[in-house]
Amino acid sequence: MDKNPITPEGHARLRDELHNLRSVERPAVIQAIATAREHGDLKENAEYHAARDKQSFIEGRVKELEDKLSRAEIIDPTKLAGDRVAFGATVKLSNSQTNEESVYRILGADEADLSQGTISVTSPLAKSLLGKEAGDEVKVRMPGGDRVYEVLEVSFKSS
Fold it and tell me: What gap in Å lies between CA 135 and CA 150, rounded to an integer?
C-alpha cells in the first residue's frame, strides 16, 4: 500500500469533505430516496433513480476519501528546508529552449492544480526535479515531447 504524501491543509480539506459527505450529503440522499419511494412504482420513478445514482456516487467518494486518508503521510513543508527539490518545495524553472520562466510547488496528487501553480509529486516534471538543486539542468519527457529546464531556485514556504 503506497503512502499518499499530503500537506496538513490538503489533509484537512479531504477530512472536511468526508465529514460533509457523511453528515450532510448521505442523510439528505437517504431522505430523498425515502420521499421518492412514497411516490409509488419505482421502475418509472425518475426521482428515485436519480437519488440512487447520487447515493452510489456519495458512497464511492466516501470509500475513496477513507482510503486516501488512511494512506496519508502528512508532511508540513513549512518545517522543511534545504537546497534540493523535495515534496513541498517551490521551484523556479527556466525552459532552456524558450527561456520562459515558471514556478511550481510540488504537492500530493490530491492537491495538484496547475492553474494554481501546483503539480503532483508523481507527475513527470516533479519526478525529474526531485533531488535537484539550483543550477541543475533537467531533461523531462513530457506528453508533448522532451523539454529541458534549468532549476533557478528552490525554496520551502507556506502556500
Answer: 6
* DSSP string for residues in 55-70: HHHHHHHHHHHHHHHH
pTM of the shown model? 0.78
Residue 59 has which C-alpha cell? 458512497
Q: 103 lies in which domain range?
A: 77-155
| Residues 147 and 114 reside in one and the same domain | yes
What is the tens place of the pLDDT at every residue in 56-103?
Answer: 999 999 999 999 999 999 988 878 888 899 999 999 999 988 989 999
Distance CA 148, CA 65 (A): 36
Backbone angles phi, psi at 51, to 5 degrees: -65, -40
The CATH code of the domain that includes 62 is 1.10.287.180
Nearest CA-CA partner of 129 in 139, 117, 114: 139
Instruction: Give 5's DSSP letter.
Output: E
**Residue 14 gets which letter from DSSP?**
H
What are the pLDDT digits (tens) for 3-31?
889 999 999 999 999 999 999 999 999 99
